[in-house]
Each structure stands twice: as C-alpha cells, then as structure tokens.
Amino acid sequence: MGTRQHPPADLILIMNYALDIDRAITLALNGSESLFWDNLMVCVTNTFSWSLVIVMLLYIFFHNNTLRDAFIILLTIGLMILVADRLCSGLVKPWVARWRPTQDPEIMYLVDMVEGYRGGRFGFFSGHACNTFCMATFLSFLFRHRAVTITLYFWSVTTTFTRLYLGVHYFGDVTVGLLVGILIGWAFYRLYQWLMKRVGTPRYVTDQSTPTGYRKADMNFFLAVVFFNYIIVLLVSMCRGV
C-alpha cells in the first residue's frame, strides 16, 4: 500500500512555496540603480513630507464641523491610529517575529538598501501600509467624494510601495497590512457614526456639498493641496544630495 502524505506536510510545502514567491516579488520590486528614485522613495516614506496635507485635513475638519464634532473626528482618528500601531508593532510583529528583508539572513545581502536604512528587526505586518490604508478608508467614508477617495488610496499605494522599494518589508507584509488597515478604517468609521448619532450635530447636505455634508469647494482645495504636496516632495527629492 502506498504511503499517505500527512496534511501538515502539505501545508508546510504550500507555505514554503508561498514564501518563495513572496521573496521573489519583493526582490523584483526592491531598489534600483537610480539615485533619483532612491531619494524620492526616502522622501515619500517620511510622514513629515505630508505635513501640508495634514494641515489641510485639519482645516477641512474644523471648517465643515462644529468644534465639538471636529474634536470627535480627531479623537476617533487618534484612537484608530493608536489601535493600528499597537496591533501591528505591539502585538503581531513580536508574536510572528518575521524578519524584515533587510534583516533576514537568507536574503539580506541580496536586498538593495538605501542610505543604509534597515528598519527594525521584524516586519510582519507593515505598519506603514496599515496606517495609511486605515486613514484612506476612514476619510473616504467621511468625505464621500470620488476624486478624493481615488487620491487617498493613490497616496496609500505610493507610500506603501516605498516600503518594498527600500527593502524593509516583504510583499506579503504590506498586503496583509493594507487589508488590516482597510478593516480598521471601516470599523472606526462605524464607531464615528455611532458617536455622532448620540452626541454629534445634525449635518446638512446641499448641492454644494458631498453626501456627508462636506463642501465640494473644500474637497477640490484638498485635491489641489495633495497635488502641490507631491510636487514639493518631488522637488525636495531632486535637491537631496546636490
């Protein structure tokens, strides 16, 4: 009689195959021979580079809401980022303990690093991907403006891609991170809705506002600021090292 392969062995084989594909995709997307792209990715991955967009968001919150409602939004976002960060860095990363590509003994010497940046020890799952996608998801539900939603997710994708380019995350790290981020963003928007029904001010919708009552003029202003911020990031990256 033939021997029957045990399910755990099959599972291990599948997992090893998936990890090999993950490494191959990561190395294919990691780095380049271009100093310009290196500088650009370093700038894009830096949260400080997007300060202008953050200021614009604060303006929108306070311009379109009462003071109390604006603080409810900020409180919800702050709690959301805290939960996302603690889940990722405080719980999952040390528990799973998966090396970052730049720290992984199996491929660390194949990874193209930029300016010697390696990141922390463990990388599963990506905090950058989780945080940016939970913000994009929450704000997309909050504003309900198609162009803004596309822009927010484009920003999330470009920011997340930098983690692959810099070699500090595997493709699987950022994929799981963005999925978790979307789920957290949706959950906290539901929490925000619950809070607003109990303590928030009724919102008024007109033909000059989005379905959630945000001025269309402010949405267009936000799009212009994001575009301008990308130009600033591009110019700063071109000036680095000059």
Please, could you describe this protein's structure?
With 242 residues, the protein is an all-alpha fold. The protein has one domain (7-239): Vanadium-containing Chloroperoxidase, domain 1 (Up-down Bundle). It is built from 8 helices and no strands. It has helices at residues 7-29, 35-45, 51-63, 67-96, 127-143, 146-165, 171-199, 216-239. Helix 2 (35-45) crosses helix 6 (146-165), helix 2 (35-45) packs across helix 8 and helix 3 runs antiparallel to helix 8 (216-239).
Global outline: globular
Poorly predicted ranges (pLDDT <50, ≥5 residues)? none
Number of helices: 8
- The number of distinct structural domains comes to 1
User: Pairing-aware structural class of the strands and helices?
Assistant: mainly alpha
Number of strands: 0
Give the oligomeric state.
single chain
- CA-based gyration radius: 21 Å
Order of helices and strands: HHHHHHHH
Q: Biggest sheet, in brief?
A: none
